[in-house]
Design a protein that fits this description.
Layout (H helix, E strand, L loop, with lengths): L1 E5 L6 H12 L3 E3 H11 L2 H11 L6 H12 L8 E4 L5 H14 L5 E6 L2 H18 L9 H24 L3 E5 L4 H13 L1
Helix pairs in contact: 1-8, 2-3, 4-5, 6-7
Length: 193
């Protein structure tokens, strides 16, 4: 099973990918996680990505395309994978198509979690206020300003990726506003059909 998960930040992609990962025993490949690991380790990629990520912008296409191309070649991704947070631009989607063609593999589905952006903003503002009240740290790019910027990047650069896959007949949409278990059930039905 080879899947792409699309949806804005905070839509629940990570939660749903983790469930599919377990069900199909395939790795969840999150470019966000890989970039955060690179930032933490202080690699050249991490140094390049840190400020962009903290401001809620997108890391250059060639950086994430290189990361994903290498990661797909790892032995644990041989029988499948879930791409979470990639592709985020049409350029990345086109690069992914080339990579898969060269590796002679196909995507089985592209799943989009559809959610109301205003509800996401309300949620993140509430969470930030609760964390601040408890004196807890929040992820640098989860502060409401950076989060708005991430949503804007999604609207401008990632929404066209949905259209890209829809034009190929590969896009399957799911109501991401439903309860977490209902969303999982919708995804399972899609993948089994
Ligand atoms: P995420 O955990 O998927 O929300 O990603 C966190 C941050 O990492 C994003 O706001 C971007 O700055 C960066 N990032 C993750 N994936 C990509 C990607 N495919 N293209 C560009 N930037 C990315």
């Amino acid at each position: 099973m080879r899947l792409v998960f699309l949806g804005p930040p905070g839509a629940g992609k990570g939660t749903q990918s983790a469930r599919i990962q377990e069900k199909y025993d395939i790795p969840q490949l999150s470019t966000g996680d890989m970039l955060r690991a690179a930032v933490k380790a202080g690699t050249p990629t991490g140094l390049k990505a840190k400020a962009i990520m903290e401001a809620g912008g997108l890391v250059p296409d060639e950086v994430v395309v290189g990361i994903i191309s290498d990661r797909i070649d790892e032995p644990d991704a041989k029988n499948g994978f879930i791409l979470d947070g990639f592709p985020r631009t049409v350029k990345q989607a086109e690069a992914l198509a080339d990579i898969l063609l060269k590796k002679k593999i196909n995507l089985d589905a592209v799943v989009e979690l559809k959610v109301d952006h205003n509800v996401l903003i309300e949620r993140i503002e509430r969470r930030a206020a609760e964390s601040a009240a408890k004196g807890e740290a929040i992820r640098a790019d989860d502060n409401p300003d950076a989060f708005r910027k991430r949503l804007e990047a999604y609207r401008e650069q990632t929404a066209p990726v949905s259209a890209f896959y829809a034009s190929k007949g590969a896009l399957k949409a799911v109501d991401g506003m439903a309860a977490i278990d209902d969303v999982t059930a919708q995804i399972n039905r899609l993948l089994e059909s």
